[in-house]
Design brief:
With 173 residues, the chain is of the alpha/beta class. It has helices at 48-55, 70-78, 82-85, 91-96, 104-111, 122-135, 138-172, and strands spanning 6-13, 23-31, 36-42, 60-63, 87-90. It has seven helices and five strands; from the N terminus they run E-E-E-H-E-H-H-E-H-H-H-H. The protein is globular, with a radius of gyration of 16 Å.
Length: 173
C-alpha cells in the first residue's frame, strides 16, 4: 500500500474561540507523489479514534494559521497535540516571507488560486452547519463539506506556489 506522507488539514467550527465553540468538520487532504485522498470527519465520525486512524502514516502536516487556530481547537476538543506528533508547517508564516498577508482566501486570490466555493466565508460555514443541525438540511452539509474540501485542496496548491517562489528567490541570490 502506498502511504500518504503529507496531510493538509483545516477545520470548520461554530466560532473563533475553542473554549466557547466546537469543531464541526475536520478536513484532511492526504497526498503522495501520485495520488491524493480526502477525509472529512463530522458528526459521529469526528472522534479521537478516527482522527488518529486517518493520520496514521502521515509525516508532514500543513495548515494555514493552524498553529493559532486549528491545532489548539483539536487539542482542546479531542486531546492530541498534532504539532508534536507530526512535522507541522503553518503556511501562513511562509506566506508572510513574501508579504502575502491576510486571511487564507485573500492570499489565494492574490496568487490566482481559484475556489469552487468562491464567496463563501467562515461565517457561511457556521450558518451552513446550523442549517444542517437544526433542519437536517443535507444540501447545507454538502455545501459545507465542499467549502472545507476547497480549503484543504487549496492548501496543497498554496504550498506548491510557495515552493515556486522559494525556487525563484533562490535562483536570484
Amino acid at each position: 500500500m502506498i502511504g500518504f506522507p503529507d496531510a493538509y488539514l483545516d477545520i470548520e467550527t461554530t466560532g473563533l474561540y475553542a473554549d466557547q465553540s466546537y469543531i464541526t468538520v475536520i478536513g484532511i487532504y492526504f497526498c503522495n507523489e501520485t495520488e491524493g485522498r480526502l477525509v472529512q470527519l463530522f458528526d459521529e465520525k469526528m472522534n479521537l479514534k478516527n482522527l488518529m486512524k486517518a493520520l496514521r502514516g502521515t509525516d508532514n502536516l500543513f495548515t494555514y494559521n493552524g498553529k493559532q487556530f486549528d491545532l489548539p481547537f483539536i487539542r482542546m476538543h479531542l486531546g492530541p497535540d498534532l504539532e508534536i506528533m507530526h512535522e507541522h508547517t503553518d503556511l501562513m508564516h511562509d506566506c508572510h516571507r513574501y508579504n502575502l498577508k491576510g486571511g487564507f482566501k485573500a492570499v489565494l486570490k492574490r496568487l490566482g488560486i481559484p475556489r469552487e466555493t468562491e464567496g463563501l466565508t467562515g461565517i457561511h460555514a457556521i450558518e451552513l452547519w446550523d442549517r444542517y443541525t437544526t433542519s437536517n438540511d443535507h444540501d447545507a452539509l454538502n455545501l459545507l463539506l465542499s467549502y472545507n474540501r476547497d480549503d484543504v485542496v487549496n492548501l496543497k496548491q498554496l504550498r506548491e506556489r510557495l515552493a515556486v517562489l522559494d525556487r525563484a528567490n533562490t535562483a536570484q541570490v
